Amino acid sequence: ELGYTSGLFGKWHLGGPDERANDMGWARFAGLLRGAVSAYDRWDRTVDGDMAVSEIYATTQQVDDLLTWLGEVDGPWFAQLAFNAPHTPLHVPPAALHATDLAEPPTDAQMFAAMIQAMDTELGRLLGALDLDNTVVIYMGDNGTGNRLLRDPYPRRRGKDTLYEGGIAVPFVVAGPGVRVGR
Q: pTM of the prediction?
C-alpha cells in the first residue's frame, strides 16, 4: 500500500447497483451507479452506499463532492472524476455555466455545446482549487460523440459505438510537475 486515500466521483459504470465502488476498493464514492442520469437537475446520487435524490446540477454536484472530500483528506490522495456530461439526455445547463447562443427551441447541437461548456466551467473550477504544483492531472475523454451530433471532419454513422475515428478518438492530456512531453 502506498498510503493514498482514494475517491471516485461521478458515474460508476461497472456492474449493477449491488456492485458498489466502495466494495471495489474506493474509500469514498459520490455519484451515480448508472452510466447516465435521467435528468441533470434531479438524479439519484449515492454517497458511500447511501442514495438520495439530488436537485443540484449533476456536473456541479460532482465537482462539489470532490472538493468537499479534498478538504477532508489528510495526506496523499488519488481521485477520479467521471462526469456524466455531455451524455444524454441533452438539455440546457444553468446559464452561469455556459455562453452558448441558443435558438428557441435550442437545437441538439446547441444543447450539446452548452453541456460541454458547462463541464469545462466546472472542470476549471476544480483545477482552480487544486495545488497544481503538487498534483498530476490526467484528462481523458469518453468513447466518442453520438452520430447525430458529429461535426466535420467526422462523417455521420462513424461516431460513438463504432470503431471509426469518430468513435475511438478521445482527448488525452497529462499535466503536472515532472511530466515531460515526448520521450
A: 0.89
Angle at 83 between CA 95 and CA 165, to 5 degrees: 105
Distance CA 43, CA 102 (A): 25
Residue type, 23: D
In sequence order, the 6+-apart residues with CB closer than 8 A to the CB of 144 are 159, 160, 161, 162, 166, 167, 168, 169, 170
Which residues have CB under 8 Å from 30's CB, separation 6+? 7, 8, 9, 45, 46, 47, 48, 62, 65, 66, 69
**Which pLDDT band, with edges at 50, 70 and 90, does 70 fall under?**
very high
pLDDT at residue 153 tops 80? no
Contact between 137 and 163 under an 8 Å Cβ cutoff? The reply is: no
CA distance 137 to 129: 13
CB-based contact 55:42 (threshold 8 Å): yes
CA 112 to chain CA centroid, nearest Å: 14
> How does the average pLDDT of the chain come out, rounded?
88
Q: Hey, is 93 helix, strand or coil? A: coil
Share of the chain above pLDDT 70, in %: 96
Q: Is 163 helix (H, G, I), strand (E, B) or coil?
A: coil
The C-alpha cell that represents 2 in the structure block? 502506498
